[in-house]
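Section 3.1: Structural characterization of target chains.
Under the original work plan, the team committed to producing a structural model for every single-chain target entering the pipeline before any wet-lab resources were allocated. The record below documents one such target. The sequence was received from the expression subgroup and is listed exactly as submitted; it comprises 315 residues.
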Amino acid sequence: MKFLTFLGKRLALAIPTILIVTVLVFLLQQLLPGDPALAMAGDEVDEQSLAELRIKYGLDQPIVIQYLRWLGGALVGDLGYSIRNSVGVTDLVLTKLGVTMQLAVASMAIALLIGVPLGVISAAKRGSIADFCANAFALSGISVPSFWLGIVLILIFSVNLRIFPASGYVPFSEDPWRCIMGFVLPSFVLGTGIAGVLMRHTRSAMLQSLGTDYVRTARAKGLREQRVVLRHALRNALIPVVTLGAIEFGQLLAGAVLTEQIFSIPGFGKLLVDGVLYRDYAVVQGLVLVAAILFILASLIADILYFLINPRLRS
């Protein structure tokens, strides 16, 4: 019952947030330079044809009417029509969402497998060589630009060693092995950056947990250090890490623009860049809206996990 009340409060906050996002997305879209009707018709077109296009797509209506029409379509899954690809924006988003989801999950898995264990080891062995190496890795992951690391990995593992493909995407249903191999380098590029952030937060949270009274009590009872660290300290230290991880995952779902461009992965980021370059306003508007909703959902999942992990909220 308490969980349902907690979830209801979070949903009550998420719904108006999404509505505010729709207003911001639509208004910011109106500020972009250029005429949508002219972008659809081309440069060599007469004024009568432009006027007909504006009437056809409702561009001659007041902004409030245009927003309400767009919002009504978005509520039923209609995000408009792409003038460049000649398909519905909803179909494009659903196609690219699967690609971005695979990249985000793989990147987050790498980040968790590297960042959390390094943070635990660094806190448990504070001041040791392992602590120094873990901090050096975290600082490198945070500081090194993703586009530079991506280019270096392509030169080493694709051009010289020929282990992984340099770019491109193969659907998992078509060739599972080539799909996995194609995601290794971009996932590592994104995952190492997030791993550095997770490592620093895990280390900080673990140091606080290791200094608490219940940890000292567990040690006084004669429990093994490994059990004290993993069973007692880590569980409480994971609370801020879960929140941070969900936020980072939401950002990955929003699209890793540079990484997808470097490795030619047809996900959200690449589609967004193409939409801006070709002034495909409906695509840009739809992608930003979907990315914002995904980020809000990731934050909602973080709140749910926070409730499940933290016994104080349940009491």
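The mean pLDDT is 83.
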